[in-house]
Amino acid sequence: MSQDRILPDEVPPPGEWAASAACLGAADPDLWFPDPDETLAAAMAVCEECPVRPDCLGYALHWRIEHGVWGGHSEVERRRIRRRRLVVV
């Protein structure tokens, strides 16, 4: 995986797994993109029960998506995961 920044318009749409995502029918899409002073608890609760959570996280990590909750992890958590992977590899 490259360290280069990937622009949002370069990220392909998620695969077929996304059709089974728990967030697909969520009432409030803003839940996954909260303001800094808002909690992630509601989004995390939806992700907790999602059958495609690992696929979602893998997608966000692979494409270096920097905003929102993906695979049950915040932006900060995903940055930590990427840093750990770089150290291990």
Features:
89 residues, 3 helices
What would you say this structure looks like, in words?
The protein is mainly α. It has a domain at 52-89. The protein is built from 3 helices and no strands. The chain has helices spanning 41-48, 53-62, 75-88. The termini are close together.
What's the SSE blueprint?
Blueprint lengths: L40 H8 L4 H10 L12 H14 L1
Name the beta content range: under 5%
Distance between the termini: 11 Å
| Structural class by sheet pairing and helices | mainly alpha
* Shape field: globular
**What's the gyration radius in Å?**
13 Å
Largest sheet: none
The tally of beta strands, per DSSP, is: 0
In DSSP terms, counting alpha (H) and pi (I) runs of 4 or more, how many helices?
3
Average pLDDT level = 86
Uncertain runs: none
Q: What is the helical fraction, as a range of percent?
A: 25-40%
Order of helices and strands: HHH
Short note summarizing the structure:
By secondary structure, the protein is mostly helical.
